[in-house]
Specification:
This protein has 355 residues and is α/β, with parallel strands linked by helices. The protein is 27% helix and 25% strand. Strands 12-11-10-13-14-15-16 form a seven-stranded mixed beta sheet, sandwiched between helices. It has a five-stranded parallel beta sheet with strand order 3-6-7-8-9, sandwiched between helices. The protein has a two-stranded antiparallel ribbon with strand order 1-2. The longest helix is centred in the N-terminal third of the chain and has 17 residues. It is elongated. The two termini are 34 Å apart. The N terminus is likely disordered.
Length: 355
């Protein structure tokens, strides 16, 4: 796992020269085979709120830091040779509300383990409350069993978060709102919606003759809500799925001829559904096609599919870091303002730290 330092320099030690009780401005833990120690931040000791940074900080994390005026607390994150993750929250967090920034690495499982370990470390260090900021709730699409022998991974993830010491979660546009029911009664789930940001962005473009299109039957309610906000008609794509990440758009319910369409979904993963739906809309006479989704994962050949598809723009939030191979069609709207507002409701002391 690549570890990146934030704010303060990182110290890179060869395996054979791993520090043993090395004296510095921070106490360095003793390790055998330590490759990277990552020290970040300089948290305000008088604040009742602190931020634990991610080992791979994103622009969303930077936005949260700027809007709260809170510097991240000193934190160590490293990966052992066998893949185990090590965490050490070196700063003073006793009695504080501790916010875990969203892990921005490429591996979902590594990100979750980093979150679990930080929560456990924070509780053991005397944190009052631990709140995990998880804009894209991992494993949310495995919220039910559709075949015999499957787990309910979304429930398991919620259980593991609670077991690790997480008292609350701030998330955005869960795959299904029913996921909140997996959280125990003493775990506060703040479920934000990005639709307002999408509406503002679309209205700013002044696109005429709009039709909101759901790429499948399951997203009908979501599309209906956006259509009402934009005061326009809606349509629905009927699709069939042969296997995971393999979908075919078969027909359309509604009229899009001569209209500008907005395909609205919650997640774009491999982009197969969106690409197929956009081609169907073109066949049905649509003009410009825009895509809106809360979470742009863009895995596999997603970028190529979107680039080849008859799509003008793909609007997503910055819940997930932009890929290095991102295409010009991808536009991100910033969630940091909404997340900071949620943080202020949970921890009113953040107001005093606001710059």
């Amino acid at each position: 796992m690549k570890i990146t330092a934030v704010g303060r320099p990182f110290y890179n030690y060869p395996k054979s020269n791993a520090p043993v009780n090395k004296k510095s401005s921070l106490s360095v833990p003793k390790f055998q085979g330590a490759d990277i120690f990552c020290f970040t931040g300089n948290s305000n000791a008088n604040s009742k709120v602190c931020i634990v940074p991610s080992s791979n900080p994103t622009n969303l994390e930077q936005g949260i830091k700027q809007k709260t005026g809170i510097d991240p607390v000193d934190t160590v994150v490293k990966s052992f040779k066998n893949g185990e993750t090590y965490v050490n929250i070196a700063g003073n967090i006793r009695g504080k509300d501790v916010y875990l920034m969203p892990a921005g690495g490429n591996s979902v499982n590594d990100n979750l383990m980093e979150t679990y370990l930080k929560a456990d470390a924070a509780k053991r260090a005397g944190a009052d409350r631990v709140i995990a900021i998880m804009p894209n709730f991992d494993y949310a699409r495995q919220e039910k069993r559709t075949e015999k022998g499957e787990p309910i991974a979304a429930r398991l993830n919620m259980d593991l978060l609670k077991t690790s010491g997480v008292d609350g979660i701030i998330t955005v546009d869960m795959h299904t709102p029913a996921l909140e029911g997996f959280a125990p009664n003493d775990m506060n789930v703040v479920h934000l919606e990005s639709m307002g940001l999408m509406v503002d962005y679309i209205k700013s473009k002044e696109i005429p003759d709009l039709v909101v299109v759901s790429p499948d039957l399951g997203g009908t309610k979501r599309a209906d809500k956006l259509a009402k906000a934009l005061e326009c008609d809606k349509a629905i794509v009927y699709k069939s799925r042969k296997a995971h990440n393999e979908a075919t758009a078969e027909d359309l319910i509604g009229n899009v001829e001569g209209k500008n369409c907005i395909l609205f979904d919650d997640i774009i993963d491999t982009a197969g559904t969106i690409a197929e739906a956009s081609k169907l809309l073109k066949k049905k006479g649509a003009k410009d096609i825009y895509v809106c989704a809360a979470h742009g994962l863009f895995n596999g050949q997603a970028m190529q599919k979107l680039d080849d598809a008859p799509i003008k723009e793909v609007i997503v939030t910055n819940s997930v870091p932009n890929k290095p191979d991102s295409i010009e069609k991808i536009k991100q709207v910033d969630l940091s303002g909404q997340i900071v507002d949620a943080m202020k409701e949970i921890s009113p002391d953040i107001e005093a730290d606001d710059k």
